[in-house]
Amino acid sequence: MRIRSNGWRARWPTLLAGSAGLSVALATCAKPEPLRPVTGEPDVRVGIAIGANQLRVGARGAVAALQDGRAVFRLMADPIFLAPAGRGMTVAGAAGSGQYETLSFAPLESSALVVVDGKPYRGVVEVFARGGGITAVNQVALEAYVAGVVSAEMGRRTDAEHAALEAQAIVTRSYFLANRGKFAAEGYDLRATVTDQAYGGVDAETSEGWRAVRGTTGLMLTFDGEPVTPFYHSTCGGSTASPPESFRTVRARPYLRPVSDRRPGGGDYCNISPRYRWTVEWDGSQLRDILRRTAPAVLGIEASMVDQIRDIRVQRTGPSGRAVEVRVRVGHGEMPISGPDMRAALLQPDGRILGSTVLQLAANHGADGVVRRVTAHGAGWGHGVGMCQWGAVGRARAGQDFETILTTYFPGAIVERWY
Question: What is the pTM of this model?
Fold first, then answer.
């Protein structure tokens, strides 16, 4: 395995210092600085609650509530409740009460955890009022953040699949580095949801996930000396996608291009996924009603234009075989639906977005020419760009190491040690 050591890394502002290694961080982060030399592991600011009407904050172990770097009360076994009030927030509970604009909940011992709405978190949790609600930000060391993402994204994996967890750990770390400060104006770097990466705090950590994190500590995926923007998804269905097939605003990059997931001898590495192949059916009136709901917001087409569906077909496919244009013929003409809009426009009957845009459409018509039933036969799950997570599991089972997995899904990228 060839891992290159990089002598320069991203510069990070130090937000925690002082007694017990802690102090209050500013609610608004500065704009990310250019890459320049530093040493040590950076911290991540993760938005774990955005605009909440109420937060419940407790502790496991000794945790202090700080304002302007001074302890104002200490959390007890019973939680406190925070609610927005004017430009600040009220605090109520046995441990403390009052009105504040910002509070930071800081562990006073290494094993202590801050618990927000029942979920425990490492590091510091800063809470502040914003936009009529409450925002909670978990400031945590990068490796602990990665541990809270890896198994949340990949699930429990066996020893034979360990390389897939290591690949996910490196991708998670690289994603943060490439997107740090994304929500700086809101006071944090990334969100704890699939908007960025699924981050579950301590509850999402597993022993095998931590083993993958420790085995790859400081390793990043880079291209031309810069962190890659490492998209990933559940199941590619046979080939990963180019960005324009799935996204309207993501620019093409040399390392984000269609990659075959074909296994030597036949079959795909991701065919172990429960979402490798799927079928969705709509009756004609059901699909019409769905398009009436989605067309105004997603397609910019008035709902009244969708009077009846007379045909639906895949008009064009992209380099990976994904549908990049679907045409829906209605009484007033044809509605084009592009690849980036397709999953949100063609909702499943239960309201979920369509699994992927690798699909074939078949329409059954009545005697009047109106569509009575539409069947979609699809492959894969997710946008399809970058690393296929189930493909990574299949490749790990086949004996590939994390470097082989990553450099396959991100052609031209390399694994480098950044700290």
Answer: 0.88
